[in-house]
């Protein structure tokens, strides 16, 4: 009963998080702190140890994302930065941008190393019966969360893959509320990508 309550509450917070992310609102990071705190318990009880671990990372990444969106303003032509605050000007919001080409190789390497490393840990040291799927979604989430914190529009592609895989994985684990949430995520993530593209053109 306690697990079901936490799962339902986490689903509600997740929907709020999804809506705020869709709108590129900085307040998504508040939900981004609450939601992993809930799912740390849900995933541990369900035996999804990699997802349990990734939520600790989510807590840290949410704090990083909050500070970066607040003060990590990029210097662009015609745009103020935090350095302009000393002159009395107010810096603009952190803009949505494309992922720099130089980031793709490091991100791919982080994904591969995380995927293989997490899978090995799950196989060798836990009783997980879905080590490869669990490690795949965890590794890709590590990459996607960092891209979200940097406000890269391509972060949506990572979440589309994660959400689709998680939807099936959580049905297998009898986490039906969470599965429904991730099924909705996979649909909204597609719309989210186009929403962010539109915001890029008008920001």
Structural summary, described in words:
The chain is mainly alpha-helical and 203 residues long. Helix content is 73%, strand content 0%. The longest helix has 27 residues, at 176-202. The protein has two domains: 24-79; 95-202, no CATH class.
User: What sort of overall outline do the alpha carbons produce when their principal axes are compared?
Assistant: globular
Number of domains: 2
Helix content: over 70%
Write down the overall mean pLDDT: 83
Element order: H for helix, E for strand: HHHHHHH
Q: What's the helix count?
A: 7
Distance between the termini: 46 Å
What percent strand? under 5%
Overall structural class, as computed from helix and strand content, comes to mainly alpha
Membrane topology: Multi-pass membrane protein
Protein name: Nicotinamide riboside transporter PnuC
Pfam families: NMN_transporter
Keywords: Cell membrane, Membrane, Transmembrane, Transmembrane helix, Transport
